[in-house]
Automatic annotation (TrEMBL):
It comes from Polyangium spumosum. Residues 17-295 form the Protein kinase domain. GO terms for molecular function: ATP binding; protein serine/threonine kinase activity. SMART domains: REC (SM00448). This is Protein kinase.
Length: 449
């Protein structure tokens, strides 16, 4: 029997970079927050993307990793995450990237959906213009020989658009991009479908065709999602998603959001045309079309976006920079309950000491765990779709989440329930009408142990 895969121990350093914490953990690589310290108090935070040790000898994956570094290192644009360096130390390959202090567009849309909110039209326009500029630059970048590099991102989606706390928009993750000089054709060549089907152009799904206009279709899907707050093509299954992308005509975004001007509907319609020849030929056409909307606001859209990010993702200040280490972020606690009122009570109880992430269902909770592993989960016993005990059981079967402390809230606590909870790995069962001090003390005791 193969033992379950465990997250590797966090290294103290990689090359000249002090490793602060793990930001994300994927199938073949992990993303770390690093820190470069120099003389006279110079400090720079970076992102370190490291190949997991068990894949260090996978030549095909290493070739793809090198290609990502080669492609992205040539892209010097304010709307594209910059490469700092690519290095190898002791058999460990890692890519050092610019650190964007802020959430992804995907995380932002998720938080807004939970609150029944959307981005404002000026904010959407700002994000769209900046993303389109980054895409246009990548699509038309020339190589040293003066020939086009023919870069296609292939994964334009909300998770790969980063929003800084200053309102700056950056396109990230060229890990599966295709380019003329890509070294590993099996990773970037035609016939290999890579990316997310819900954002993939129909000609790519059906015929494997791929060029800059395919990225613009994906961009149109993202634009529709920003305007409506809803996914454009995501279906109940992968096959259903593919069927929707290749056959379904979307309603105008204005039919779901009255604030959308008709001109914006037309931009989305052109981007989502199934015939690539009918789409805009380049990203700058989108920049010009949105500029013609004359969406002038006071404050400017970038400041509106700053305010939205600050509200959705409160800042937790690091300790003074002259300290030898950086204090980790507040422990991340996911609170799962169908009652918005109870979630608000838990947030009010724990918010001073913990970063509280809210979820109303087990599926929402699992989605919140796909990035950084939470420090603890506080969950209602009865949920729509799956119970709190079922959620805990599913976590214990996942090596990444097997050790995450789990507190169950129940209206009627019986010895039978407590025994069942212990079997699936629940650390504590508390009354749903909890005493805030009891919840905080229980959580603190569990985390300290």
């Amino acid at each position: 029997m193969v033992p379950p895969m465990q997250e590797p121990e966090l290294p103290e350093r990689l090359g000249k970079y002090q490793i602060i914490r793990r930001l994300a953990y994927g199938g073949m690589a992990e993303v770390l927050l690093g820190r470069l310290a120099g003389t006279d108090g110079f400090i720079k935070e970076v992102v370190v993307k490291r190949v997991l040790p068990q894949y260090a000898s996978n030549s095909e994956f290493i070739a793809m990793f090198r290609d990502e570094a080669r492609i992205t290192s040539r892209l010097h644009h304010g709307n594209i995450v910059q490469v700092v360096e690519f290095a190898e130390e002791g058999g460990q390959h890692y890519l050092v990237l610019e650190y964007v202090d802020g959430p992804s567009l995907g995380a932002t849309l998720y938080e807004l959906r939970k609150r029944g909110e959307r981005l404002s039209i000026p904010e959407v326009a700002h994000i769209a213009v900046e993303t389109a500029r980054g895409l246009d630059y990548a699509h038309h970048k020339l190589g040293e020989d003066g020939r086009p590099l023919l870069i296609v991102h292939r994964d334009v989606s909300p998770s790969n658009i980063l929003l800084s706390r200053e309102g700056v928009v950056k396109l990230a993750d060229f890990g599966i991009a295709r380019a003329r000089e890509r070294l590993s054709p099996t990773q970037g060549g035609a016939g290999t479908l890579k990316g997310k089907f819900a954002y993939m152009a129909p000609e790519t799904i059906l015929r494997g065709r791929l060029d800059a206009r395919s990225d613009l279709f994906s961009f149109g899907v993202v634009l529709f999602e920003m305007l409506t707050g809803k996914s454009a093509f995501t279906g109940e299954t992968e096959a259903h998603t593919i069927q929707r992308v290749t056959t379904e005509d979307l309603p105008p975004a204005s039919s779901q959001n009255r604030a959308v001007p008709p001109e914006f509907d037309e931009i989305v319609r052109r981007l989502l045309d199934r015939d690539p020849d009918n789409r805009p030929s380049r990203g700058l056409e989108i920049v010009d079309a949105i500029a013609n909307l004359r969406l002038h606001t006071s404050p400017p859209p970038s400041e509106l976006l700053m305010e939205t990010i600050t509200r959705l993702f409160p800042i937790h200040r690091h300790e003074a920079r002259d300290r030898a280490t950086v204090r980790p972020a507040k422990p991340r606690v996911i609170v799962v309950d169908e009652s918005r009122t109870l979630r608000a009570l838990v947030r009010a109880s724990l918010g001073q000491r913990y970063n509280v992430i809210e979820a109303s269902t087990g599926d929402e909770a699992r989605a919140a765990m796909r990035g950084a592993v939470p420090d603890a989960v506080v969950c209602q016993r009865t949920l729509q779709g799956m119970s709190g005990l079922e959620l805990c059981h599913s976590m214990r079967e996942n090596p990444r989440l097997a050790d995450v402390p789990f507190i169950l809230l129940a209206s009627d606590i019986t010895p039978e329930l407590e025994a069942e909870a212990r079997v699936v790995g629940v650390q504590a069962v508390l009354p749903k009408r909890f005493d805030p001090r009891q919840l905080e003390a229980t959580l603190q005791k569990i985390l300290e142990s």
